[in-house]
Amino acid sequence: MLENDNTIEVIGARVHNLKNIDISIPREKLVVITGLSGSGKSSLAFDTIYAEGQRRYIETFSAYARQFLGGLERPDVDKIDGLSPVIAIEQKTTSKSPRSTVGTITEIYDFLRLLFARAGDAYSYNTGEKMVSYSDEQIKDLIIKDFSGKRINILAPIIRARKGHYAELFQQIAKQGFLKVRINGEVKDITAGMKLDRYKTHDIETVIDRIVVEDSEDVQKRISESINTAMHYGENVLMILDQDSNEVRFFSRNLMCPTTGISYQNPEPNLFSFNSPKGACPDCNGLGTINEINIKKIIPNPKLSIKSGGFAPLGEYKSSWIFKQLEIIGEKFEFKLTDAIETISEEAMEMILNGGKEKFSVTSKTAGVTKEYKIEFEGISAFIKSQHDDSGSSTLKRWAKEFMDEVNCPTCEGSRLKKESLYFKINEQNIADLSAMDISDLTIWFHDLENHLSDKQKLIASEVIKEIKDRLNFLMNVGLDYLSISRSSKSLSGGEAQRIRLATQIGSQLVGVLYILDEPSIGLHQRDNEKLIHSLEQLRDIGNSVIVVEHDKDMIERADYVIDIGPKAGKYGGEIISIGTPAETLKSNTITAQYLNGTMKFEIPKKRRSGNGKFLKLTGATGNNLKNVSIELPLGQLICVTGVSGSGKSTLINETLYPILNAFYFNGVKKPKPYKKIEGLEHIDKVIDIDQSPIGRTPRSNPATYTEVFTEIRNLFTMTSESMIRGYKAGRFSFNVKGGRCETCEGSGVRTIEMSFLPDVYVECETCQGKRFNRETLEIRFKGKSISDVLNMTIDEAVPFFEMIPKIHRKVKTLQDVGLGYITLGQQSTTLSGGEAQRIKLAGELSKKDTGNTFYILDEPTTGLHFEDIRVLMDVINKLVDKGNTILIIEHNMDVIKLSDYIIDIGPEGGKGGGNVVAKGTPEEVAKNKKSYTAQFLKKELL
User: Fold this and answer.
1) pTM of the entire structure?
2) Which of 196, 607, 675, 678 is most buried, by CB atoms within 10 Å?
């Protein structure tokens, strides 16, 4: 145990699988908690230390405030001493809102808005001239100076380029006491009943005063009063008409174009916000994209007739109002519903798609009778659009979206802002230009900015620029230089989102805080790892405690203190097996230490697989930052796609290759990023993508339901003799539907007791004792076990138990093969770690019969995995490849990369500096490449 005064003391922690552990964690140090996946690392760091920190914070609120916040459950721990305020930086906390961007999360965009509002120069969107604004005193001085001795009219612009007869307006102007108006450049007296041509556009100004300009006191006073009146009626704009030359000049209190007179409101930060009506583009409401009807989706096959379902939204012919209307349109334009759509005239198609109202008569050629018809048809396209825009039903909106494409908004061209906002510039760049730059380019631009500012701008902007530079540097330091601040936060990976939050926290410069991070190195190339570790050391050095749950070798070696939890996972873990400095950890005999000191290691295969000689070839991929990339994937091999963060790996595989394959084999609807062609699709027969998203978000979801093994188990229970006598069906053995479940707890096994001022308390259901089912259901037994007993079995126990039932055995055996023997069949999905969830998905796919020609895509499967877990996973993957399947892995982990048969390295840098294939070939061939960052680290691994 450490000295008591500067430690966090945890005594008697029993959350999840922790075995009543006592531990002292040093404060103001970088502490790494490591151990096998599922051993209890997160249970200690997040569910014990962080949960208690949060609970204590909420306890400081009044009882009145707490009832609105909802209480937090006290973690199952005897005592925690020495706890500072806790901030957790997890992977799952980014907003999925389309309005959230990197700029808004880091507050850089808020500072940019302030900078443009206070120091931006406005330019006219008509002429490109710099806008001007005057005070009333300046306007008076300019009139006296420039129009001395001339006859002028002072005008207030009322209407600009709008249609209408304006009879009421002229009456109103006359009532205000004015006698003359200037209409379309001509001064006229206001007369009774005066009105204009309502179908032409007009410019109307009220004549406020007519005066000969002199430099006398009376004239000056009169001009001042007239300016005031004109500004009132002209909404801060007035015009001076020189009666002799008929020339006009504009003056405005607001920003104004000196030539055309258009004016902008004075800039405020919300003029540059796409989340405010004042700044957002009016057409896309600040989203940057709009949904547009795609005729090809409405008419996928123009050779079909309307009757046989040529219009996808309508389907095949039914005796309904809409088909009756189409028959009437057919009468008018002389086509039948059995005609191919491609033969119908353009006029008729215009009415079918966009609608119309019309009355017409048709004379029958045989009977000579004239029939009157009336069409009132909204149009198929128009109906889809109205459902998408105005329907309150999410189901209808989703239906309408099937026939639409998301395209860049043509008005703002994806910038999200209204036109005026884009004409405020600093050093020739508007706010959208800066938002689209990579953070590395933006940092350079800001470092050079002060050379391009006027003295007045420097004075106003210096503090704001300092804040922006600091935040940009923090993002650079955590390896995110390839992102742009306009990047939508929902497109970020878990690791990127976590590092952005880390950069924001470093920026806040708090001291005396306990930070808990969950694998911040996820998705980070070895090259950028150094930057990340340095950022964490910075946090520690300013006086914070940092606890990191991590498997990364470099991070463990650089820590001040290492806690290893184990020895195995699940109920076989939850104990502290080693504690001390990295040097002390290396000497212990734990699995972690053996991998760190080289006792255990990943054996490099003596011979790489040569594949089946067939290839999948993708040519000319240009999505995002890809620079016309062409790749050739050898089938029947383990392929690794590598490269620094942001180099274009996900764009190439997840956004180009996978959607192409998914559309070809399963009619997937996701549109791939642009590419020229793909060859070799005939060599594989299906594609499977296994990503990192959670398998279920409710406690009712579990490994048994996700892998569908629970369906087979329920069917098995219905076939027992007792079940058949009682007539039980599969639904009887489900805890999600009425019938067999315990109705007191509705099949959840626990009851929630609401305490008005205290946290909700979960107690075991007194009726079923946590077994989820009622007494009658539990009486049905298979090999002496009830359905509840089966759900509480670990996978390791279930494998021999179901040995004689091939359907069930195959599924539980694959869960065991991917290293999940320690979890129970009924474990709640919400308690599974990210690595466990991904391996359950992998097991779900592996348990299906593979054809030997399947193409698997795995995105960083080593997330959350310990060295030993990676070894187990690679054994499963190698078995699959040995059967002839192709597995493509996007990966940064060197242990996986060195075991692959073929590597494609994308780069060399992230963002704009990436998007090229830097190296390809076997690990040995790639390691010789001088340009590849991956090669530098791979070379050390292959020695």
Assistant:
1) 0.78
2) 675
